[in-house]
């Protein structure tokens, strides 16, 4: 990855976004172009991938990017060819996939979306920068990341992650709202497991200005009845209300995830990453953990959390769902 900290002449960072004419990308691309993710000294080159029928719409998005007159935006490539899109990519944001509709679970998208990630894996493996960082957003994001990683053996699994920062942000916002405190005062929240309705938004160690707040949230029983299902079902609630899945908040979460991952973060955040056996999760699935982002794309899973019985039950349930999704996804590809 090019050095991103030099204040003088950092090299251009090549960022590929798939599904670039879709609704998430429409909110995401300006945030990438204006320097709010990779820094206000970091020039970027955007490579935008779409399916062929969406190329006319993509050319409109590209015109708008040019008209935005972003000083850091050095070039925009539009293409329907993954090999061209991923050429030299330092960062790849894989948004392009079908969204779920009202009444569906995200795993109902496996049959449609998994083949997209298998195909893109081959192209990334061959054409991206050897140190490319890949963020999978398209659902079911954890299992798509697993497929991507499996079929892109040149990319270290630790360079692939899936988005659960949206759930993390939702959890922060719900704690802040319930306790009527500013978001930035809330800490110690994290998301375990799958970006699905089995995810475990953990507030056992939540704090406000360093003071534990589990009791103020009503204790474990109340959290189980109200807080946890609110976060687990938030995506579905937005689809029901909007008729479309979340886009503005998803784009914001992608920006947060990339900024933390690539540039580093003092706070503990949530990312779905390649499980290495931590907390008893079987190696290979992409599992959301509390992570520390160390800068330049390095992260570590937070170790040593003493999980109580309440948390363990949720974590085991979401892990079981991921093992089943993995098996289903792999069977679809045989
Ligand atoms: N992980 C998360 O937190 C999270 C949050 C929100 C949405 N999502 C998921 O992100 C995905 C995109 O959502 P959206 O609202 O932007 O959908 P959208 O339908 O508005 O846009 C998706 C775009 O992807 C394109 N696309 C489809 N197949 C492609 C391919 N093979 N290569 C390149 N582009 C392709 C489509 O043409 C479309 O323009 C969905 O799967 C959605 O469920 C994930
Ligand atoms: O819920 C969805 O299908 C979209 C997205 O994953 C979300 O959490 O909003």
From TrEMBL:
One of its GO terms (molecular function) is L-malate dehydrogenase (NAD+) activity. Residues 15-159 form the Lactate/malate dehydrogenase N-terminal domain. It catalyses: (S)-malate + NAD(+) = oxaloacetate + NADH + H(+). It is an enzyme of class 1 (oxidoreductase). The active site is at 195 (proton acceptor). Residues 164-330 form the Lactate/malate dehydrogenase C-terminal domain. Substrate binds at residues 100, 106, 139, 170. GO terms for biological process: malate metabolic process; tricarboxylic acid cycle. Belongs to the LDH/MDH superfamily. MDH type 2 family. This is Malate dehydrogenase.
